[in-house]
Amino acid sequence: MNSNILEIENLHVHFPIHIGTVRAVENVTLDLSQGEVMGLVGESGCGKSTLGFSILKLLRPPGIIAEGQIRYHGHNIVEMSERELLGIRGKRIAMIFQDPLTSLNPLFRIGDQFVETIQAHESGVSKKDALERAGYMLKRLGIAPDRLHEYPHQMSGGMRQRIMIGIALVLNPDLLIADEPTTSLDVIVEAQFLDLLNELRQQFNLTILLISHNIGIVAQMADRVTVMYGGRLAETGSVEAVFADPKHPYTQGLLTSIPNIKLDQTQLHTMPGAPPDLVDPPSGCVFHPRCPRVMDKCRREIPLSFNDKGHLAACWLYG
After folding, report:
1. Which is it for strands 93-96 and 175-179: parallel, antiparallel or unpaired?
2. Which residues contact 268 (CB under 8 A, 6 or more apart)?
3. pLDDT tens track for 201-217
């Protein structure tokens, strides 16, 4: 029996604009099994957040899913109506957004926003019971329950981020898309949040897609990691395989760019160049203008994925 909770197949996400079409996600195929944590890493502008938004069809205009399938428990989300999606968003698949200030409604108290979320999916729950659940969730996130009566502007950025995390988790979803969930958190609260995620994962068999620039968090939390570049998948595999023996030159560059206090470094390693213009991406391998191991074939042809026991790398150096 197929244990995959999510299957993405040949996904293309485009943004038609006046100067052309932004090809934000191109030919992405990946899957998540029940209870798995998948880390999604890469530089800004490589398509990570767009991929996350696509799963819930939350793309902002003019974004469209141009091609491909997104199957949740075998049901194709791409073909679902807005009415059908209402039963999935929040309840079955939850998302933690990057910017809590724009995600929380400034006109409503924190408690009201919890209540609205709970009652939208569980109509028989009273406001009192919903507030009790919200207070319990805040307490687990290190916030006093009496702050449910406050407004978002009365809280710090870190507190607002924890509120967003609480709203995402209060319905006990089975798939959580976490888009840079620890950006606004200090190291202590970040550790508490990661402990909570691990606890919920074990208790409820929670599946997590963790989108992050913080490779250390991915190494700590994830079972597998996927590296994106230029809207495409560069490499994917187990955390142990990818971090111990990265195949793609882009993955190698990312890992060597991480500061290491154990080494006597007088200068940080950086990759030359910048991510490509997705309106007019390079021919062949999208990474070839920055690749230190580029070959003529890389400039002409889009690489196939080399597969070594589940460790995939889209690079002509292999296979």
Report:
1. parallel
2. 257, 259
3. 888 789 999 999 889 89
